[in-house]
Design brief:
Elements (H helix, E strand, L loop, with lengths): L3 E6 L3 H12 L4 E7 L2 H11 L3 E4 L7 H11 L4 E6 L4 H10 L3 E4 L4 H12 L4 E2 L1 H15 L12 H10 L5 H8 L3 H15 L4 H20 L1
Parallel strand pairs: 1-2, 1-3, 3-4, 4-5, 5-6
Helix pairs in contact: 2-3, 3-4, 4-6, 6-10, 7-8, 8-9, 9-10
Length: 220
């Protein structure tokens, strides 16, 4: 199996060495590089094209801007935020910028590995005990926005969205709805296309806004 290349961005030298050493111990990972600023993270990703970038939010430079640039200029590199900032606002801002993972420092090492495994398959990972709060934040944020036109979703698509807003994985959604995981992935792809979303988080955002517009149209 091809090794997964991982880069790290953090301005704490000890933590940076620790994370690199942790993944270097496993044969299926290769370390693409280590940097300590937002600008250096962009340069590293554009030159080395790692599969995964694990970055802190608290380091020199515009980290959120860097995440956005990486998402646009190197879409094959999946960004996981590994931070001590346990606020819904930080998570929402990072995910909106283009990150696909959000893990709190202080979590078990296994959770960081789980995040890498999850985003590698194209899904979004949010620290478990924090996921419900982030989804609630998405719902609150969506109440302040509107779409130009409502998009009609099928009953099944609405069921998928409902489960997604409860921070369930594709496997968990499949179990709840008693359908195959492959079918869930099919519907998720359809939802991304319909709602012009790049990932699961954006599907949740767009679906909520769409739902609000539908209710608004019905009341007029």
């Amino acid at each position: 199996m091809q090794k997964l290349s991982i880069a790290f961005a953090d301005d704490h030298p000890v933590l940076l060495r620790g994370m690199s050493g942790l993944f270097a111990e496993h044969d299926n990972y290769v370390i693409a590089g280590q940097v300590s600023s937002a600008d250096a993270a962009i340069a590293l990703v554009l030159s080395k094209h790692p599969d995964i970038l694990i970055t802190d939010l608290s380091m020199p430079g515009d980290v959120f801007g860097a995440i956005g640039k990486i998402a646009l200029q190197a879409p094959l590199t999946r960004v996981i935020v590994f931070t001590a900032f346990s606020s819904v606002e930080s998570a929402l801002k990072a995910l909106s910028a283009g990150a696909v993972g959000f893990v709190l420092k202080g979590s078990l090492c296994e959770e960081l590995f789980e995040a890498v495994t999850t985003v590698r398959t194209g899904e979004v990972y949010i620290t478990r005990q924090y996921a419900a709060q982030v989804m609630a934040g998405l719902r609150d944020e969506n109440r302040r926005r509107s779409l130009n036109a409502a998009i009609r979703l099928s009953v099944r698509e609405k069921q998928i969205v409902g489960q997604l807003l409860q921070a369930r994985t594709n496997k968990e959604i499949a179990e709840v709805l008693k359908i195959s995981e492959k079918t869930v992935k099919h519907y998720m792809t359809s939802l991304m296309s319909k709602l012009h979303a790049r990932n699961r988080v954006e599907v949740a955002v767009a679906a909520q806004k769409n739902n609000e517009l539908e209710r608004s149209s019905a009341s007029n």
